[in-house]
Amino acid sequence: MALSTAACWSIDVTEATPVDVTEVDAAYAYCERLTHHRAGNFRYGIRLLPRPDRRALCAVYAYAREIDDLADGGLDTDAKHRELSRMRQQLTNLGAHPDPVCVALGDATRRCPIPLEAFGELIDGVEMDVDGTTYSTFDDLYLYCDRVAGSVGRLCVGVFPPSSNPDAARLASTLWIGMQLTNILRDIAEDAEAGRVYLPREDLRTFVPDMSSPPISFRSGPGFDALVRFEAERALRFYTEGLRLLPYLCRRSAACLGTMAGVYLRMLIRIADEPSQLLDHRITVPAWEKLEIAVRTMAGLPRAVVRCFTVSDPPSIAAARREGASAVSDDVMLSSTAFNVGIALCGVFWTVAYVLIIRRASADGTYGMPVVALCANLSWEAISSFTQPPPGFLGPVPFVWLFIDLVIAWQALRYGPGQFPRTSARIFYGMFGLTLVMALTMTFQLNRAFMAYYNDHWGLYAGFAAALMMATLFLFMLYNRASTAGQSVPIAVCMLLGNFCAGAAWLAYPPPGIVASTFQESLVAGTLGLNALYATVLWRHGRPDGHAHAATSAPEMSHAKDEL
């Protein structure tokens, strides 16, 4: 029962390509077709790799597939052992065999440091299946899982570009063992009917003593549910440890591995949600969900696959996730002094910016923050103050900003109708209220999503998403007003410096547990770029204190519009 087992067993890809193919490209094409038809849970991740790595991993999968098929084929035990010995010997000279899988694998091993000895370990594990080995303790089962699944992880590390983590092979093995344990749970009823039981006997005696003697037939009940959830929690710890490898891989390799693990992890969560369903039908992940997981990981969420994919986990699996998934409780203090300093400076600069906005707007008889940005700001600060406060010393910061923003909101309500002469005050107030309600709803959902996907209990992702939107809207406000009223270079510089301090602290000294991603880098870079552009335009078209030059009128700012 090697990990490569898939649901699509009826497709005979050998009919599509002759077995004597020797041309390398055709051999790779054969392996890719086999992977597409047989690797129901893996192909979505494999497709995220660059073409050379994808072809190499398909060759690895195809050979592992052939080894696994022998264990489940119709040959007698002696014949299976002879075939496995033949495949073991075949690995010593792949170039001597015209089989397309051997041709492709031989070429892949010349291009990548694939540890062929791991195939020997896979064969050792499959021989345990052929012999009908049973497992008294988890240590016994671990050996089997390491051979049939951990070996596949080590093979994958050989395909991926070199990792800077010296424990890469061990972490990959650990992750694959977690997926193999998921496989064992998924097929528990089917394997029992075939006379195969992989779960340790010691666990059976503990949870289902009446079902621990051969022939074993599992029945629904509290004991069975407890057994499955116990094994699911154990599997989850392997995922958590193994997923530590992802940050050390290149982006596409991490996306590939994250997608594979994400599919199996989602399956594991469903198994733990309702163990009794294992006795009724085979649990699968629909194709559209596999695609969703692939999109998430490719977008920069690979490490987040260990986070919550459902919100209704049973207490046992939720407890295991809290223990193993690096979830950070609200009372955990930030450990990095540099991060603390960066965030503190951000708070100082943004507080100064808010005060300057209030002063400038009051002097010019207008409001100094775009209405949509103001509503988003109020929403983030309200949520961060009352429902999802950040941990440690950051807790009071959103509350202080919320109080200041309420003053800015009062200015918007006082001066706003005058900025829109074609709109009545009643309509303006109604639109302001509607915008605030929509912003509250969207910000709350985004904050929850960032907490789940990125383990962001500090509001950094949500805060920078709001900062990016604000930076864009400040530019639009300058453009639409055709003047610098309510705005000034000091305000723009304080916003830029505040975001720079927070962004630098986040990128260089991230708080414990938060997930890094390319999305994070894009948020920071985009925000700082737009902040710098806004400050530059203000400097060119207005005095540093925010007053327009005497000659700066609509025609001159019209020229500014063209430049923006």
Automatic annotation (TrEMBL):
Q: Does the keyword Membrane apply?
A: yes
| Signal sequence range | none
What CDD domains does the database record attribute to this sequence?
Trans_IPPS_HH
Mind telling me which InterPro entries this protein's record contains? Isoprenoid_synthase_dom_sf (IPR008949), PaxB-like (IPR039020), Squ/phyt_synthse (IPR002060), Trans_IPPS_bact-type (IPR044843), Trans_IPPS_HH (IPR033904)
Q: Which UniProt keywords apply?
A: Membrane, Transmembrane, Transmembrane helix
The chain's coiled-coil residues are: none
Keyword Transmembrane among UniProt keywords: yes
Q: Which residues cross the membrane?
A: 338-357, 369-387, 393-413, 425-446, 458-479, 491-509, 521-539
The record gives the membrane topology as:
Multi-pass membrane protein
Which SUPFAM superfamilies has this protein been placed in? Terpenoid synthases (SSF48576)
Kindly list the places in or outside the cell where this protein is found, as annotated in its UniProt entry. Membrane
The protein's predominant localisation is membrane
UniProt-recorded name of the protein: Squalene/phytoene synthase family protein
